[in-house]
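Changelog-adjacent note: as of this version, every example in the card shows the full chain rather than a window. The one below runs 289 residues end to end.
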Amino acid sequence: MDTLLVPFHYDYMLRAILVSALIGGVCGLLSAFITLKGWSLMGDALSHAVVPGVAIAYLIGLPFALGAFVTGLLAAVAIAWVKTGSRIREDASIGIVFTSFFALGLLLISLNPARVNLNSIIFGNILGISVPDIKQLVVISVVTVAVTVLKWRDLMLFCFDPGQARTLGIRTGLLHGLLFTLLAATTVAALQTVGALLVVAMLITPGATAYLLTDRFGVMLWLSSALGAVTALAGAYASYFLNGATGGCIVTLQTLVFVVAFLFAPKHGVLAASRKAKRLARMEGETAL
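Full-length structure tokens:
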């Protein structure tokens, strides 16, 4: 029993576990909207687009979160501009923008390898997180949760049916920008936990898992957040005993939970669908007789 409590004896592990749970819960909350809206590629784009902002911030001595947030918003604007100003489809626009931003970030890092830690950007460094960084993450998380709780019904309608939202007088353009901003801020918050490569998983997998488990969005919203928080906490805790990368442990655990839901979800899982298909086939056979 004492062995299981060892990680909590170290301040750096305690900080890592608590911060991971916080970020996991916030990412899970937004994950529900991303899944409903079909913005998985957008999450991928923003997670890569923040890399040049982090590199520039390191080079000029600014907080990395500021640079990441700015370039994340610039990427969102660039995607919208390419989409509306040409015949290029949205998925192609996203691919062009995020790969360009990511390449620019890698170029900046390669030109100044001694001043920018590539590994901490790409893979995260939750074990080395400082107190100021924790305060910053807490502020981002609190603001994101507060806005989401206040506007979740409007955001749900915008994600599900923008046309109906406009008919009801809801300013969909404002909600679009709001969701982009929350997504960019949360991407920045999760960057130090799991790194640029794995942020997208934390922003998609909990929502996709919850989507398989319930048909009610209100339940899906809180279930997604709970899954994100619990798996992030458990992954960070397990990383101590496995001596593995914290981000890798978190995302692997989230993927395993998704696979279980994918197979065994009572209504939308593979086995449930198979049983339903067999019942329908049997009923059709009985009707034919």
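Structural remarks: The chain has twelve helices and no strands.
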